[in-house]
Write a structure and sequence with these properties.
Length: 174
């Protein structure tokens, strides 16, 4: 079997892909933030087809806590609970008579993202969403590896950068 080097970060399946895009609204490498101001956040929410008006504090707080849960820092349960309280979810029946979580009231965009995380945790895909360990990248990626041990968003990008840097540190200065 031939090994393939990924040069594009893997995308999560289903609704978890939206959560991944949300986590990547912070682009460490470029130094950009799609939630930098209300206008930029409204544009991102509209493009993502998420309901409601942007609440920057809530959105940024959720992004910070979810990124921490994926390996970018330490999660703070109290902050996550406060965010969840401001973005209520309601139990509803879907067309197939399955119970689902739906946004209810203010904070609908945050509630939708939280519902997708709950679903991903239930189906086992959540723990495959990780933050690239390359300090200059920190991109959220989906670990599709069989062993679930991927550490970089893509071997052909950050894996290569890391290995070249390690080689240069080991090599005598020429």
């Amino acid at each position: 079997m031939e090994s393939v080097t990924r040069t594009v970060p893997a995308t999560a399946p289903g609704d978890l892909a939206l959560v991944q895009r949300f986590l990547n609204t912070l682009h460490v490498e470029r130094g950009t933030d799609e939630l930098a101001d209300p206008g930029a956040a409204a544009t991102w929410l509209a493009a993502a087809r998420l309901p409601g008006e942007p609440d920057l504090a809530l959105l940024r707080g959720l992004r910070r806590e979810l990124r921490a849960l994926c390996g970018d820092g330490t999660p703070h349960p109290g902050r996550l609970a406060a965010i969840a309280d401001a973005a209520p979810l309601q139990v509803a029946l879907d067309p197939h008579d399955h119970l689902v979580l739906r946004p209810h009231g203010a904070g609908a965009a945050v509630a939708t993202l939280l519902a997708h995380v709950v679903d991903a945790q239930a189906d086992g895909t959540w723990h495959r969403l990780k933050i690239c360990r390359h300090d200059g990248c920190r991109w959220a990626f989906y670990d599709g590896s069989r062993s679930r041990t991927a550490t970089w968003c893509a071997m052909g990008i950050c894996g290569n950068r890391t290995k070249v840097a390690a080689y240069r540190r080991r090599s005598p200065a020429g």
